[in-house]
Amino acid sequence: MKTYREQHKPASEFANRSDYLNHELQIMKPKRFRLNFPGRDFRFEWEDLVPALAGTLGIVAMYSSVMMAWAEGLTSAWDHITLGKEFAIEVSRVEMIIPTILFVIFASGFFNPRANLAGNHGPMIPLIASIAIAGAHPLALAVLIGVFGLLLSVFKGGSRLVNLTSKGVAGGLLIFLGFTGALGQITTIQSWGKGLESSTVQLGSLGFLGLIILAVTVILYSFLARIDKRWLAIPACAVTALLIALIGGAGFDLQFTTQMGLPNLNPVHWWGSTDEGWMLGLPNSEHFIASLPFAILAVAMWSPDFLGHRIFQEMNYPKKTEKVLMDVDDTMSMCSLRQMVGTAVGGGNITSSWGTYMIPAAIAKRPIPAGAILLGVMVLGVAILGSPMDVAVWPPVRCIALLVGVFLPMIEAGVQMVKRSACAQAAGICIFTAMVTNPVLAWALAMFLDNNGLIGDKERANALSVRDKLIIPLSILAICITAILTVGMLHNTYGIQALF
């Protein structure tokens, strides 16, 4: 069998760029848990810069959001803790250095190019305040997530859950998450614009800027989709939003406060004392008990999250590219290890598959390794320089990057998956359940109903074993319900008190 190097052909021998990129995907044979080298096993292409830049913008925004949520939640939950923006930025920089070197550049870039990058668990961000109030400890939570994730990976549970999730259920999940995520970013942009004040504008405010940025984003994104260049959406739209905000007079709102240099990379500084760092000290048994239901919930949400990212590859890659598709179980292993290591050195991120990298990479028809290495270098540069973080977390840049790079493509992919009436029925039940409760329970319930022929394609249900129809779906459903009731996720909506 010929190697990648022997089968590689220059781009000039193909009719167009798309054919060349398709051929590259079809001839790649990445080595699993062995070193892969540029030139021999993969190549760098200029298209790799787009997902690398998109992933950098996305992860800076997401890491900062997670750390600010921890700072606010712990400050509210504990009398002796006062954490603010400076703490959040420094911990974000810790997360952007050590885990990036180990699990982005080395792991996904050279060691296992079929494992997607370990990034951020976006759906868990709104729960961080509840996690802090429940008495959980970030380090205890990280250990439990890592252990549960490794167990699921070792027993190939991640890939089995992906196979048990039909296109209808997956499509409904993508539509709901994409819609709610997009609505959240639009609301943030609107609030940011209305909060701006200007003495040079007769109206007294710059609230119109939010509307202009969103309108231009829609037009630019539609144009890029029309010319089949959606993979340029994040950098093009984010830079455009930045320029509009600056030209419109909102530059005074952009403050450069982060200094160049390295954060404190000594774990003792963060976890060794209650007077510095997180101010929590090392976790005890009570912290582990309080963290348990949230850890179960986080890992339960991994499979649909991973599924969504792999779907983008399957939709955009040509045939005969199975060898470069994201491996769900290997990605789960990397996320589990990265979760424990990243938090142990002082971080606090809740990890999942890196969507702001994978989605643009799939659209650009590029495999994982080359872009991962470029992204790792960019993230390290941002963490050391400091000031680019201030730009990346500025609302017009952060929100537009997430809007066009993650949430709109999720909606599009979900709609494409539910063209058949049977798929649409399963998707509708999944969306409705998510609106009533939350996406995790919606996925678990819809998967159970669909696999038993109660909704969706009945012929598919006939081809499944008893284990796939009853044992696994009911177990997942029971775990999700128990975790949700234990942490009181339905308290604000329905007044159901937490069991814990």
Automatic annotation (TrEMBL):
The keyword Ribonucleoprotein does not apply. InterPro entries: DUF3360 (IPR021794). Keywords: Membrane, Transmembrane, Transmembrane helix. The chain crosses the membrane at residues 49-70, 124-152, 164-183, 203-224, 231-252, 288-307, 368-386, 392-411, 423-449, 469-490. It holds the Pfam family DUF3360. The keyword Transmembrane helix applies. This is Membrane protein. It comes from Neotamlana sedimentorum.
